[in-house]
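Intended use. Records such as the Peptidase M14 domain-containing protein entry shown here are meant for training and evaluating sequence-to-structure methods. They are not intended to support clinical decisions.
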Amino acid sequence: MKDNVFYPIGTQGKPWEDKERHQWLQSTKIHRSYQNEVVSKIKSLENIFDIDNYGALSYDTERYSLYCLQSQNWDDKKPSILITGGVHGYETSGVHGALKFAKDKAGQYLNQFNFLIAPCISPWGYETINRWNPNAVDPNRSFYADTPSEEAAFIMHRVQGIDILAHIDLHETTDTDETEFRPALAARDGIDYVKGTVPDGFYTVGDSENPVPAFQKAVIESVSKVTHIAPADENGEIIGSEVTQTGVINYPMKKLGLCGGMTECKFGTTTEVYPDSPKVDDEECNDAQVAAIVGALDYIIEKANDVYSS
């Protein structure tokens, strides 16, 4: 159903040009500090991980240096795990869930895996609590060759050449998806806004080309010990996609240019936490992200013979 939602930038039905994109950028402002809230936590882990400055965003190269955590004494004989957060900078638990796992849980798995953890791929989006980058480009639709997103380009270059066994990409679905970001998307692209629903609870998005249902189930079961799982709606869907099992939907990751499709990993999942639920608080959301990672890793360890022989 089309909704006549007024958006204060642009003309309804007409895609934005440079003027509108600039107007949108001028409407944004800094709400929080990437350096104080994220970089300081990354640097506090230097005794556990090697810290790699893998790039800097041209919007402000000093303010928006990009960091990842890498296992010390990287061993190519071990399977490698990629954990990403903050592709959408406003999705807070993705950033802090990745950091909490690195601080509190990663040590239990360092003997079995190499880790590459990029907690905040979009620091400008983190500071402005935004889905897009300053060019009104969604980094999480931009993971492809010749990408218009610096955020995507830098992390794709960083992981190039690494044989990634599993990729856990940490996200949130929020009320502002429907109150701000999807209406802005419709305005930017000159299309009608079709109202959606925000599911109350955690769910995962698998790759429709490689859905690995048992792996997704293990993630859901681990998270269910921490927080509630999103139910299907009356159509058997979550955000317009068929629920294939409790709390799981699938997207064509590579076709959509999603972060979860940037490698050839055997096991991939994109988490979706709902931080606006009255049933949770910020720490529970962070814990849900940690539980998702733990569930993924424990599954791989439990199924090691099957994983490495196939």
